[in-house]
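Most newcomers find our protein records easier to grasp once they have seen one. There is nothing in a record beyond a sequence line and a structure line. Getting from the letters to the tokens is the skill we practise here. An example says more than a description, so a record of this kind follows:
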Amino acid sequence: MAENLFQTSDQTFEKDVLESTVPVIVDFWAEWCMPCRMIAPSLEALSNEMEGKVKIAKLDIEANPQTAGRYGIRSIPTLLVFKNGTVADQIIGAVPKNVIKQKIQAII
């Protein structure tokens, strides 16, 4: 994965996301989730298109239940947009790439 599209975990979440100097989109997902797989290509494309402006982190909710619970993730895929260590926006469900891009552009 590219530097701007990476895996995060319960152990690295604070450093990877909360302490980031650029906005971070966190994709809360699971391997078995088909809608999660549907948006993965859009997230990969956006990570390349918006390199330097935003990072995209993937967090497997089954391997990292602590962070998912901390943010009340009940449905996946859920994308949380973090800016300056706090949640600035969220997207729930498999949405088109342009919807995700609009949300990102609104906070950067």
About this structure: Strands lie at 5-7, 24-29, 55-60, 78-83, 86-92. The chain has a mean pLDDT of 94. The chain has four helices and five strands.
